Amino acid sequence: MVLDGTGAPRMDGKHQLCEKCGTRLSRIKHHRAYGPGRACHPRCKPIDGVSPACIEPAATPPRSHKRKEQPTGEPLSAPAANLPPPPPPLPPLLDRPTWVRQGFQFVRGNRARRAAMKDWHRLVTQTGDGAFDGWTEMRAQFFEQDMRQSLQCSLLEQQRVRVVSSAETNGRDLLSSLGIDHSSLQLSDIGCLRTDHNIGLQEVHADIQKFDYASQCFIVINYLVDTESTAVADVHRGELDCLWTMNIAQAQARLASVSFPTQRVFAGDCLVMNGKTFHYGVGNPDEYQRFIGFLSFTPKALPPFDSQEQFYPTGVRYG
């Protein structure tokens, strides 16, 4: 029986009850003084799954300042802070320092080189009496002109001497900028290549035929017009030395995994290569004729090499 008189605690027989919810205090771990008797502490709790009507609702938990993402049914990804940053994209070949590691280096044209290339292009495109007439067709159906050939026209001959001198000076400056002592080198060959549209695809080759000789030589390529660059093996400078002693089948298998990137270059841009660097000329992708000048620097202590005798590790498949 429950007694609910004023000034007396709530009781059920011998059992004192909570003044608020009527639960036996003997079943409650903590209780406190409340009115004439005692009450649950800190607040009344449900007994056997039943919530007394007097139980006050719990305070609303504080809201987080972070917005909760709605479930999407997709697996949660790892926090961005735990993921490694993506590798930065490689810069274009023209802006990549490749000389020390790979033995070749593209160099953007400056004002002096662009002016020199324009003069060279203007000279080799002259027609008529006294102009260059020694264009020789090569293996890949492009034409080569020896820039050491004297011209009968005195005005054009003056231009030729100036172009050759300027090209050699620019070439030596480029070698010096790469830490090469050009004073021990001689200009052994200088020429110009002319290629028509969709013509000029070469086989992979090195410009010097003997390995021991090649490593001491340097090639400078000058782009006289806007075109697609020479394709150069994108590997460490020593990784393809094995090609010099392989047979054709072995060389083909080794080169199958090698990347030969190219990119768009402009009149005045240059490419410097060690003589053992493997490369090839791509077909002319433009509607106009392509003109490329080249210079070969060899040690003064060694005889000049024949620029027509190049090393083709996979053989020559064109006539």
Could you explain the architecture of this structure?
This protein is an alpha+beta fold. It folds into two domains: 10-54, no CATH class; 93-299, Sandwich (Jelly Rolls), CATH 2.60.120. 17% of the residues lie in helices and 20% in strands. The strands form five sheets. Strands 6-14-10-16-9-8-7 form a seven-stranded antiparallel beta sheet. Strand 1 (2-3) and strand 2 (11-12) form a beta hairpin. It is rod-shaped.
Task: Going across the biggest sheet, name each strand in turn.
Answer: 6-14-10-16-9-8-7
CATH class annotation of the largest domain = Mainly Beta
Give the low-pLDDT segments. Answer: 1-5
Domains counted in the coordinates: how many? 2
Over all CA atoms, what is the radius of gyration? 42 Å
Main pleated-sheet profile: 7 strands, antiparallel
Number of DSSP strand runs: 16
The fourth-level CATH homologous superfamily of the largest domain is: q2cbj1_9rhob like domain
Q: Would you identify the CATH architecture of the largest domain?
A: Sandwich
Number of distinct helices: 5
Rounded mean pLDDT is: 86
Oligomer: single chain
Question: How does the helix and strand content classify structurally?
Answer: alpha+beta
Shape: rod-shaped
The proportion of residues forming helix, as a percent range, comes to: 10-25%
